């Protein structure tokens, strides 16, 4: 009888093996994995809680690739393995990678233990213990929930691991476990998880503090020091939550009369440590405009809890998303809001996309400019009235100045360049009389109007620019394209690109009738330049021996060979809603990747050269070790003709939106 379950993990070499293997979700990677490891055999391992029987691969066109038990006639396949998903072998990956990581740093690893009910059919692994012979223990808790007695049981477990010696014990917790006892003891907690990188699952270490999003780092970026485990985000976590020290015990106070115990107030939803779903963003770069005066209660499935929803519109904080509709989800109800006015979000703040619109998660919302109180001020004594008249007069001056600035800004939209400069000087002279919030608002309005006037001025100059003579423009462009082809035949690809760039400048001066044919010729020469061998590209005669200097350079040849593999890894990361680093790309490929920025930028450009113009760039998923934007991505986006904001404050937000579009595009492919 056929096995209807989709088993995603197995072990190699035998039932009692500790070598895990996971089936990739995409079919090309699954076929590559099968060809590489099929000779070793796939088994439903005992350390996975399986039956120990041999498995076969199922890579079809309808269902996702998976393992399956081999049918034995009409006998019903009985296997009491509790978990079959891609995370069911993570304890074996963690055991393998932590041991190799510790040995790479010169540490001696003792006898590692897999805790729980494994090996055995139907068993579950609750954690991994990695003792270090020179002192220290790494304890991974996957399913160890200590319940309401967490502090007492955790202390007892620490004493058992210490074994009567004074040594450092570093705990790493899986996602979803209660960590209040850890926060109370040291203010932060280390997290651990596994993510797909190509055909393998890679271990990541996270640093989490109460009420904040987990900050993840690759295992290779962490270190074992004399003080214990170190991550790139540990210093910030310790600074935010200093470790509590036990104070010396005080002498017992005299007994007092017992009082009735008052009911303890229940902590608010905002004070409870909850992980917000989605991609973290900086709240200062995102302003919203509510469309209602108060929120409504709702149950959010992505958050997994009851929340309060508020329809909003993204304000002018995000340039490319201004005016976009969104839903704001809050842990507490929001009332007495000011519709159609800018509001700020309280951190932490995350963003994710749904099938209909954008969804924003935040801890709270408050008006950007709090309105001054309209209540009547208290009566003042005659002695203090003379010295305290300034506050209401100053508020009235600010309101009058704001009205004047608004009228000047309205005039600034409909005047020429010379008049714009005079109005700007008048507004700058009135700036000291404005409040801090009004001053920032006025500066943003002036900057936006100046950019708009600059774009209009450039547009008028282009329209008024006289067209070049048809024969002269075509002759100049043809001259530079011929020079580009000549340099290409000599192997000077850099000079060929320079000539092609000058020809592109000539293209901008052509009359409209010549645009179509000129663009076709420019694209043809560009394709020849991107191919390192002009003879094979069709420039030389078939069978002709290449001239001296036209052979492929080794670096270009290596780049061409790694581009398909890198694109495949980026597509897999996009389907898994994940990121990938250059270190992970190197581990997943058999060829060595270049380390210089020029070669890496060229690799990313070639990877996304086949991406459709209507789709986001896969290169956005390449991040640094601390999950930040790769510095090469803005250059790659501009080289491929995609707009990217050059403002440093808006770069992170725009890259975040590109990542969200990539994940949304590839989610179900």
From TrEMBL:
Biased composition (Low complexity): 537-549
Domain of life, source organism: Bacteria
Region (Disordered) residue spans: 236-282, 369-399, 533-558
Protein name: Competence protein CoiA family protein
Organism: Actinomadura sediminis
């Amino acid at each position: 009888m056929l096995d209807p379950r989709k088993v995603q993990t197995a072990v190699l070499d035998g039932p009692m093996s500790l070598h895990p293997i996971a089936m990739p979700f995409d079919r090309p990677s699954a076929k590559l994995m099968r060809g590489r490891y099929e000779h070793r055999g796939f088994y439903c391992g005992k350390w996975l809680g399986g039956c120990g029987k041999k498995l076969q691969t199922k890579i079809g066109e309808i269902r996702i690739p998976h393992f399956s038990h081999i049918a034995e006639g009409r006998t019903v396949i009985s296997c009491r393995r509790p978990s079959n998903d891609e995370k069911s072998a993570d304890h074996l990956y963690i055991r393998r990678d932590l041991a190799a990581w510790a040995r790479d740093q010169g540490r001696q690893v003792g006898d590692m233990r897999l805790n729980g009910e494994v090996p055995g059919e139907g068993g579950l692994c609750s954690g991994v213990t990695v003792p270090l012979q020179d002192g220290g223990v790494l304890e991974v808790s996957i399913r160890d929930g200590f319940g309401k007695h967490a502090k007492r049981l955790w202390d007892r477990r620490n004493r058992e691991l210490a074994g009567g010696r004074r040594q450092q014990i570093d705990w790493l917790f899986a996602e979803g476990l209660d960590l209040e006892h850890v926060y109370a003891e040291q203010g932060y907690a280390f997290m651990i998880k596994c993510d797909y990188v190509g055909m393998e699952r890679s271990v990541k270490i996270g640093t989490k503090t109460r009420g904040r999003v987990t900050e993840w780092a690759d295992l290779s970026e962490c270190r074992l020091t004399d003080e214990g485990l170190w991550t790139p985000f540990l210093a910030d976590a310790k600074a935010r939550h200093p470790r509590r020290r036990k104070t010396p015990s005080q002498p017992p106070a005299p007994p007092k009369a017992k009082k009735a115990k008052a009911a303890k107030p229940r902590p608010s939803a905002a004070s409870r440590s909850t992980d917000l779903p989605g991609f973290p963003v900086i709240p200062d770069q995102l302003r919203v405009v509510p469309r209602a005066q108060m929120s409504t209660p709702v149950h959010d499935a992505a958050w997994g809890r009851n929340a309060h929803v508020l329809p909003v519109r993204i304000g002018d904080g995000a340039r490319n998303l201004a005016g976009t509709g969104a839903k704001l989800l809050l842990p507490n109800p929001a009332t007495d809001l000011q519709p159609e006015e800018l509001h700020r979000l309280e951190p932490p703040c995350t963003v994710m996309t749904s099938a209909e619109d954008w969804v924003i998660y935040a801890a709270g919302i408050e008006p950007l400019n709090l309105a001054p109180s309209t209540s009547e001020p208290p009566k003042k004594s005659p002695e203090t009235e003379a010295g305290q008249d300034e506050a209401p007069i100053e508020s009235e001056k600010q309101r009058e100045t704001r009205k004047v600035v608004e009228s000047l800004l309205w005039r600034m939209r409909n005047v020429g360049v010379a008049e714009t400069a005079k109005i700007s000087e008048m507004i700058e002279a009135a700036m000291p009389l404005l409040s801090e919030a009004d001053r920032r608002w006025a500066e943003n309005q002036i900057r936006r109007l100046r950019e708009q006037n600059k774009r209009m001025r450039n547009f008028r100059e282009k329209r008024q620019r006289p067209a070049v003579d048809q024969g002269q423009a075509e002759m100049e462009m043809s001259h530079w394209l011929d020079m580009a082809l000549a340099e290409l035949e000599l192997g000077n690809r850099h000079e060929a690109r320079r000539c092609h760039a000058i020809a592109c400048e000539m293209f901008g001066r052509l009359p409209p009738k010549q645009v179509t044919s000129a663009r076709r010729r420019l694209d043809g020469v560009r394709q020849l330049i991107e191919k390192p061998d002009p003879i094979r590209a069709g420039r030389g005669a078939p069978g002709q021996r290449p001239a001296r200097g036209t052979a492929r350079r080794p670096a270009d040849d290596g780049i061409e060979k790694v581009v398909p593999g890198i694109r495949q890894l980026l597509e897999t990361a996009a389907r898994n809603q994940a990121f990938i680093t250059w270190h992970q790309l190197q581990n997943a490929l058999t060829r060595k990747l270049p380390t210089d920025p020029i070669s890496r930028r060229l690799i990313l450009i070639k990877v996304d050269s086949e991406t459709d113009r209507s789709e986001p760039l896969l290169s956005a998923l390449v991040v640094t070790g601390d999950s930040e934007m790769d510095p090469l991505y803005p250059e790659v986006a501009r080289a491929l003709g995609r707009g990217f904001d050059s403002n440093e404050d808006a770069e992170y937000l725009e890259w975040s939106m590109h990542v969200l579009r990539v994940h949304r595009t590839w989610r179900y492919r």
